[in-house]
Write a structure and sequence with these properties.
binds aminoimidazole 4-carboxamide ribonucleotide; alpha/beta; two-stranded antiparallel sheet; 14 strands; disordered N terminus
Length: 272
């Protein structure tokens, strides 16, 4: 359910089907739930440009264009339902206005948008929602101010909040992946589940932007341990990566460099 706040701010009221409405089927004595699987094309922004980093390293950057809305339209034209948009400058602690200026141009397209990077308080969440974002990603604050996650869910609703859990060598990283949080991804995910979070994005930093294959097994382990919907991210290189994440009954997968490099087309991936 979208909160009253959300509907009021947007001035709209429309029926909304929950993403993870599931098909349940019985196999012998066990009930299995096949959840809806969503492929999220990524649009990472640095000073208004569409970029990809390797391992999240700001010095290892490839620029793929200077028109974020054009990139968004390209992925929607291929059939995407959602766009995953990251304000990298924000994540690194820089207050670049360019990425925020690009945001309404992306949300004006005919897709749904999850957005994060540099969200540090309730006012940032409100600003993103007012810019037309459907779901706001909380990363660093989920570690540094976990009470903010509780407040955000109570103020905006659990469907508007997703927690980004980005980890390397078993440790969650914050502040643009430059700082170790001293907590494992599964432990942080459990803490978030206890606060009422429904969905997390799990990124394997060691694979991000380098096309080495997605860590579907680790993401699935977090989903099984916590009961959360988990979107896997980092390393997608082939259609087989998409198949493997889907087979693990994950909530979705984020693809970035592979579709910008043309390793496969998003349209093909969406057929899976
Ligand atoms: O590439 C990076 N160095 C990077 C990145 N892609 N650092 C953070 N992020 C993304 C996270 C999440 O979507 O994957 O930014 C969001 C979290 O930002 P923050 O500012 O809330 O920690």
């Amino acid at each position: 359910m979208r909160s009253d706040w959300y509907l009021r701010k947007r001035g709209v009221s429309f029926s909304y089907s929950k993403r993870s409405v599931s098909v349940s089927f019985l196999s012998s004595q066990k009930t299995m739930t096949q959840q809806t699987f969503i492929i999220y094309p990524a649009i990472d922004l640095r000073n208004g440009q569409v970029v990809r980093l390797q391992y999240g390293d700001p010095n290892l950057q490839t620029v793929f264009g200077n028109d974020p809305a054009e990139a968004g339209q390209r992925w929607l034209d291929q059939g995407a339902e959602w766009l995953h948009v990251v304000n990298l400058d924000g994540a690194f602690g820089d207050k670049s206005a360019a990425n925020w200026e690009a945001l309404p141009l992306i949300t004006a397209l005919n897709g749904r948008v999850q957005f994060g990077g540099g969200i540090r308080g309730l006012s940032d969440i409100e600003r993103a929602l007012q810019a037309g974002v459907d779901r706001v990603i909380l990363g660093t604050v989920a570690v540094e101010q976990p009470e903010l996650v509780t407040e955000a869910i109570s103020q905006f609703g659990a469907d508007q909040i997703v927690v980004g859990i980005d980890a390397r060598d078993g440790e969650v990283k914050t502040r643009g992946w430059q700082t170790g949080a001293g907590v494992s991804p599964t432990d942080l995910a459990q803490q978030m589940a206890d606060k009422g979070v429904k969905t997390i994005i799990h990124t394997d930093i060691a694979r991000d932007g380098v096309l080495t294959g997605v860590n579907a097994e680790k993401s699935a382990g977090i989903a099984q341990a916590t009961g959360l919907d988990v979107i896997a991210s980092g390393g997608v290189a082939t259609l087989d990566d998409i198949r493997r994440t889907k087979a693990q009954n994950l909530a979705g997968v984020i693809t970035g460099r592979a579709i910008y490099d043309g390793k496969f087309s998003l349209a093909e991936a969406l057929q899976i």
